Structures are given as C-alpha cells and as structure tokens.
Amino acid sequence: MQLHEVVDAVTADEPPLARSADDIIAAGRRAERRRRAGFASAGAAGLVVVAVAGAFALTSVTSSTSAPLALPDQSAGIVAGAGQPEVTWSDAAPFNFTFRGFTAGRFRVEDPIVASTAYQIARVYQTDRVTTELPKNVRKDLPAGKGKRVSGAHFAHLTLYRPGAFDPAGITDGTPLTVAGRQAISSAATNPPNQQLAWEYADNAWAVVTAFSYDADPSVEDLSALVTALKPSPAVPAKLPFRVGELPAGYTPVEIGTNAIPGLNGIAAPGDSYGGATYANPAPATTGLTKPYGGDDGEAIPSSFSIFVTPSAKSNQTPKPGKTECFPQSSTPFCNVYSADGVVQVQVVGTGQFSSTELTRIAKSVEVVDVTDEAAWIPAAEALTAR
Fold first, then answer.
1. Which of 143, 170, 283, 341 has its CA 20 to 30 A from that of 94?
2. The organism sits in which domain of life (predicted)?
3. Angle CA 37–281–120, to nearest 5
C-alpha cells in the first residue's frame, strides 16, 4: 500500500463492511492505523521542513575548489543552557529519541514520533503556508477546502539516521555542498517533485530533510537552516501504550510509532493512532540507506507484520465491542480485536504470510495499558519483547 492510499483511507468516511480486497487494503490500512489506536491514546505524527533564523554558508563543493571539511568536535559537547550540562550527539540504542522539536525562522519542527533500528522521523510545518499530509496533495492553483488540494501547500519530513545508517554515496544525482561547515548533498526529484538536503550532523551520521512542493519554496537555502538549528537532546526512550505477548518465530521489531503508526504513514496521518510497531523476518538492513523503510510511498516492509493500537472512532469500520473481526480476503490480511467497550482497537496486519488464526493470536496477546495516561506507557525496548 502506498502512502497516499493510507492517508486517503484514514480520512475517508466509514465504508460498508462488504468491500473488495483492494478496498480493504486502502480503507482497511487506514482503518488499521485508526484501529491501532483502538486500545491506545490519540497521537500525532510529524513532518519535517525546518529553517532557522540566521546566516548560512551554502557553497558548492568540488574536488578542485573545496577545502577539507572541518566538522565541529563532537566530543566538546553543545551547551544546553546556562547552568545546564552539555549535551552531545550520542549513539543511543534503537527506539530512542535524541532530538526535540524546535522553531526556526519560517519552520516548526515537531518532536520525532517514529523510530526504527536505523533512524528517527519528525514532522515539520512551514508556518507561513499550508502543510498537507500527502505528496499527491502538493499542488498549486487549486481551491482550498476539506478534501481538496491546497494552493501552495507542501509536505515534508526530517529523518535523523543513526551513525553509519545513511549512505551518501547512494544519492547518485546529488550536488555536493558545504553547509555551515558540514558536508552536505542536495538533490531533487520530479515525480512527485521534491527537494532534499542531507548533511553530516556528526561523524558518519546524517540527517535528511525532504520537502515535496510544486514551486521553488522551500529552496535548498531555506532547508539549510536545519543544519545549524538541529541540536542534540538527552536520549529518551520512545514509549508505546501496549506490550506484545506472542510473536511468530524469527520476527524482530524494526520500526515503531508513538502517537502514530510506524513509518512515513504515521508522519503523513498524525493523530490517527496511539502507537504501533512493525516486525520483520528477515529484518531490513540498518546500513546503506537513502530513505526510510518503505520509501517515499510508505510501502510495507517485505515479510513483515504490524500492530496498531488505535481509537475505534478513527477507524472506517464499525466497532464491535469485545469482538474479533478478520479480513482474510484483503491482499494484506488483517484482524481487529476491540476493547470491551469498543473504544480501542488492536489491529494486526501482515503482508500475506499469516492466516487469520495467527493474526488473531498475535492481536489477542497484546496487552494495552491506559491509553489516556502517557506516563503509564511502556518504553519500546520493553514493550516490544514477547512476554
């Protein structure tokens, strides 16, 4: 399923239960995310495009004209504030967040809400224009309004890769740059149109901002503001409103969303899930990456399954309090388990490798905590381990 299909489904009106497999995938995935919130608390996903007030040195880098790059000494630390300890970029374990949201110039970056074995993702808003949730909605000269494309809108996200995870050599059509003294690469695409800037925020560690837009705004110069604005924060574990019970042999956690579903789908559809996790066998590579798992369209990770805890009110299917409902006819079969009051939905969706019996077994083993009390949520490393 592609990103735009997921978000369309998330925002669709409740469909009839009798649907085709494709309908269930599109509407069901959206529902899955919503259903995922069924046993959790409402959350939000984030996009990223950030700019910071101040001057930025942006110069092309070539082998003949560029001086050797001199990155800041990361061991020296970054002062967090008067009387506060210094904070440096740390090689924290997966499923931890190591930066926080911030406002810079025309942009507002939210706290990261997606984490994987290789990166973190945050949502970003451009404060002087409309931010949409889908690349396909990034159009110009179209009327604004609910369900319509918005003039001058954009979609963006910031991905902070763990050390060694991102491969700058994989950006074969990029332009080497030096931004604020850091090694960087800019690149652009046309389908859908987007501008991307990657930079080395620490030794062998890269951050990437990707902005989809049909006009020249934001420019590479605009995106360069992120380079100096992005700062480290003390590592904080991502938390989930549930803990898993039984897991299929060989499957390991690869991506989570807190107050969101995992991956770019969670970034595109904020507020539709309390949280979720994706497991895979085999797990995808944690090095050599140039994009988050699933690519720009948020495709499912091969041989994976996902658990979503969602408010039933966000689902496009009628809640069935205390019941279990499966959709084996879908090209990506899924099963829903509803809380006794029907308010929360646990959904498990695979990529076609599991029977309804297995999907139900996984879903029923999920223990949901109080979705309204985030203080009671469980650190991901603990929540993702089978009991």
1. 170
2. Bacteria
3. 55
pTM score: 0.77
The range of the structural domain enclosing residue 339 comes to: 3-44+236-383
User: Are 337 and 308 members of one domain?
Assistant: yes
218 with 307, same domain: the answer is: no
Please report which confidence band the pLDDT of residue 147 belongs to, taking 50, 70 and 90 as the band edges: very low
Question: Both 89 and 202 in a single domain?
Answer: yes
pLDDT tens by residue, 178-219? 999 999 999 988 766 788 999 999 999 999 998 887 777 788
Token pair in block for residue 182:
């850091």
**DSSP letters of 158-214?**
EEEEPTTTB-GGG-TT-EEEEETTEEEEEEEEETTEEEEEEEEEETTEEEEEEEE-S
The verdict on 114 and 250 lying in the same domain is no
Looking at residue 78, what DSSP letter applies? E
What's the rounded mean pLDDT across residues 105-119?
A: 92
pLDDT band at 384 (very low <50, low <70, confident <90, very high): very high
pLDDT at site 16: 32
Containing 140, the helix (H) or strand (E) segment is: none
Question: Identity (one letter) of the amino acid at 348?
Answer: V
Strands 193-202 and 182-190, by their bridges, are: antiparallel
Check residue 288 and give its pLDDT.
97
Dist. CA 230–CA 61, nearest whole Å = 22
Residues 224 and 242 in one domain: no
Q: What is the pLDDT of residue 76?
A: 33
In a domain, 50, yes or no: no
Choose the final residue of a domain: 185, 210, 229.
229
Are both 212 and 288 inside the same structural domain? no
- Domains contained in the chain, number: 2
CB atoms within 10 A of CB 382: 12
Over pLDDT 70: what percentage of the chain? 71
Rg over CA atoms, the chain: 21
Q: Do 84 and 215 reside in the same domain of the chain? A: yes
- pLDDT per residue over 123-136, tens digit each? 988 877 776 655 55
Do residue 37 and residue 79 come from a single domain? no
User: In this structure, is residue 51 part of a structural domain?
Assistant: no
Q: What average pLDDT does range 100-113 have in this prediction? A: 88
Picking from 202, 229, 256, the residue at the C-terminal end of a domain is 229
The DSSP annotation for 107-126 comes to EEEPPP-EEESSEEEEEEEE
